[in-house]
Amino acid sequence: MTQDDAGAAVLRAWGAAAPDAVLLDGFHALKHALRFGARVGPAVTSDKAAALALAAELADDLTDVLRELLVEVPAQALRELVPRVHPTGVAALAARRDRQANLDAMAQLPRTSPVVVLDNPRNLGNVGAVIRLAAGFGATGVVTTGDLDPWHPNAVRSGAGLHYATAVERLPLEELPPGPLYVLDPEGEDIRSLAVPDDALIAFGSERHGISPELRARATRLVALPMRPQVSSYNLATSVAMTLFHWGGPAPA
Ligand SMILES: C[S@@+](CC[C@H](N)C(=O)[O-])C[C@H]1O[C@@H](n2cnc3c(N)ncnc32)[C@H](O)[C@@H]1O
């Protein structure tokens, strides 16, 4: 097959897969998705030599895989597929992680690491940043409530494709996984006075309105992060980072 034929074929495959697929926007999203077992479909780049050079420098475990997978297409064709092309000029489509497997992973007790709950988050950048944190800390999963899709391309982009490294699902508040519910709120007890158990749900309120009355009513404990007077709150993702750090994180290698 000539390069033109391969380019045309990958663009047809993209068109067929796009409606149901997750957009992996950029080299890092594709790298993480591959490392954590995503089923990746069409993968394109406007500069294959540059993408392989990046792989050799940053992710040599994947250089051979990417040499096979990536198809070079003209820059204009890539711009038509992806509204805001990532500076690395790489994009791919993948299947979501299996929902039932995600729900089973979060329902299983005893858990060895917490599930993060974001109650009605409003900012997809925060959602992605939290998923990245959860993946790094080895959290069991991230549940969002409300109307935002945590698999939205902007969340996958800011999560650097780490949706495949932890269970990510949107659920109604009534269907949260089991486990003691530790709700983070500046009016709670100081987090330094308690331990966060491995099987906890650690829950955070929305950027605009904080924790909802429904979430507060379900709390096993209300927990505060230390903050000097006159500061009203921390950013959502940084609050998750502090709480996961206090929980403890993955065992040292
Ligand atoms: C940006 S804050 C919400 C601010 C919101 N305007 C409010 O009235 O609460 C987002 C979430 O981060 C968590 N958070 C922020 N600062 C915190 C603190 N000092 N202690 C505990 N949780 C905190 C809470 O879960 C909060 O709902």
UniProtKB/TrEMBL annotation:
Keyword Ribonucleoprotein assigned: no
Name of a matching Pfam family: SpoU_methylase
Leader sequence residues: none
Keyword tags: Methyltransferase, Transferase
Domain annotation tRNA/rRNA methyltransferase SpoU type: ranges: 115-244
Cross-referenced InterPro entries: Alpha/beta_knot_MTases, rRNA_Methyltransferase, SpoU_MeTrfase, tRNA_m1G_MTases_N
Gene Ontology molecular function: RNA binding; RNA methyltransferase activity
GO terms, biological process: methylation; RNA processing
Coiled coil region boundaries: none
Gene3D superfamilies per UniProt: 3.40.1280.10
Protein name, as recorded: rRNA methyltransferase
Organism: Streptomyces cinnamoneus (Streptoverticillium cinnamoneum)
Lineage: Bacteria, Bacillati, Actinomycetota, Actinomycetes, Kitasatosporales
